Write a sequence for this structure.
C-alpha cells in the first residue's frame, strides 16, 4: 500500500514584493511507490521538497529490484533520470532545480503526475501517483514579478499577481520549469509526453519560458539527437482471450501476462471489437394445439477463428472456436479461415 505524507513549513521573515514581511509555504510530500507483478518484492519511495514555488528537490529510492541493473525513472511519461541498483538491488536518484555533482536536474513539478521505475524490458517495476498541489485554489497561475534579485516566480491569482506588479502566465500552473525565463534567454532541451498518434515523447530545443508554457519537462542534455525524452517503451499489448466459466473475456495485456492468466493471445491489439466474443441466438416456436405452449431453444454459436497451434514441432492453422484454441495452447488470430495460412511467418 502506498503512503503519502504532507508537511508544510512557514518560512517567516521573507519579504514580499514591496518590502512587506510575509510567510512563504514550503511543501514536503512523501509518496510510496507500489510494486507491480514484475517485481513483487520491490519497495520504493518518492520524496519531494519545495522550499519555494520555483525551487525544489526530488529523491526516488528503491529496494528489492534486480541487482546491478539500470532503470528509467519516468515522470508523466518522460524519462527524467536513470536509477542504477547495487548488488543488493537498492538504488537512489537525486534531482534538484539546482543540480550539482551527482544530483541531476529536476525540470518538472512532479505533483499530480505518475512516477514509474521502469526496467530495460519496458515493464514498470514500481509505480505511484504524486498528489497534487494540496488542493490549491483554481484560477492560480505562475506569476512573474521583478524584485531586487531579478524576476521571481510565484503561483497566485491574476489579481494578486497584478497587485504585486507582476505578469500572470495564464495556463501555466507551476513555476517548475520556471516560465519567467532568464536574461539573456537560452535554449533548453524540452520534452513533451506522447499524445494522439505520437507514440514517443517529443523533444524540442526551445527557451525555458516556451517549454513551461507548453507544459513540458526540461531535461539535462544539449540536444534532441538522440531523443533523451523517451523511456524504454512498454511491451506490446495484445487482445487476450481469458476463460471465464463458459465464456471468454477479452483483456488487453502483454503476451507474458496473457499466458500467466491462462489466456490466449489473439491476433488483435485491442478488445474493440472483441475478438473473443461468441454469439448467442435464440429461436422461439409456438405450438398450434388447443393448449398453446411456448418452446424456447437457445443455440450457442461459437464462430470459428484462425488458431495457430503447435503440432509435432510445427505451427499449424486450424479453424476452431476460441475456447478450443485456448485448450490447444494456440494463438487466436481472429475470425477467418486458414486459406491463406496466417500462421506462416
Amino acid at each position: 500500500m502506498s503512503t503519502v505524507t504532507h508537511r508544510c513549513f512557514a518560512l517567516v521573515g521573507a519579504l514580499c514584493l514591496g518590502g512587506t514581511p510575509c510567510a512563504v509555504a514550503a511543501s514536503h510530500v512523501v509518496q510510496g511507490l507500489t510494486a507491480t507483478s514484475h517485481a513483487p518484492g520491490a519497495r520504493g519511495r518518492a520524496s519531494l521538497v519545495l522550499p519555494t514555488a520555483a525551487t525544489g528537490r526530488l529523491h526516488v529510492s528503491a529496494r528489492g529490484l534486480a541487482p546491478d541493473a539500470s532503470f528509467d525513472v519516468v515522470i508523466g511519461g518522460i524519462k527524467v533520470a536513470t536509477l542504477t541498483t547495487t548488488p543488493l538491488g537498492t538504488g537512489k536518484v537525486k534531482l534538484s532545480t539546482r543540480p550539482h555533482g551527482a544530483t541531476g536536474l529536476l525540470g518538472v513539478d512532479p505533483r499530480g503526475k505518475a512516477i514509474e521505475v521502469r526496467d530495460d524490458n519496458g515493464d514498470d517495476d514500481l509505480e505511484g501517483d504524486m498528489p497534487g498541489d494540496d488542493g490549491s485554489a483554481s484560477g492560480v497561475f505562475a506569476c512573474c514579478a521583478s524584485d531586487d534579485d531579478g524576476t521571481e516566480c510565484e503561483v497566485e491569482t491574476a489579481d494578486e499577481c497584478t497587485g504585486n506588479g507582476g505578469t500572470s502566465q495564464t495556463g501555466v500552473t507551476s513555476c517548475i520549469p520556471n516560465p519567467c525565463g532568464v536574461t539573456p534567454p537560452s535554449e533548453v532541451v524540452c520534452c513533451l509526453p506522447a499524445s494522439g498518434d505520437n507514440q514517443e515523447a517529443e523533444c524540442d530545443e526551445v527557451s525555458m519560458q516556451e517549454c513551461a508554457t507548453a507544459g513540458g519537462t526540461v531535461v539535462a542534455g544539449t540536444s534532441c539527437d538522440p531523443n533523451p525524452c523517451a523511456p524504454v517503451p512498454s511491451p506490446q499489448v495484445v487482445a487476450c482471450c481469458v476463460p471465464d466459466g463458459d465464456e471468454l473475456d477479452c483483456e488487453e495485456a502483454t503476451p507474458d501476462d496473457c499466458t500467466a492468466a491462462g489466456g490466449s493471445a489473439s491476433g488483435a491489439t485491442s478488445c474493440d471489437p472483441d475478438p473473443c466474443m461468441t454469439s448467442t441466438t435464440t429461436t422461439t416456436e409456438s405450438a398450434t394445439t388447443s393448449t398453446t405452449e411456448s418452446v424456447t431453444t437457445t443455440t450457442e454459436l461459437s464462430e470459428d477463428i484462425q488458431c495457430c497451434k503447435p503440432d509435432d514441432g510445427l505451427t499449424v492453422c486450424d479453424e476452431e472456436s476460441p475456447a478450443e484454441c485456448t485448450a490447444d495452447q494456440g494463438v487466436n488470430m481472429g475470425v477467418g479461415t486458414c486459406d491463406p495460412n496466417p500462421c506462416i511467418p
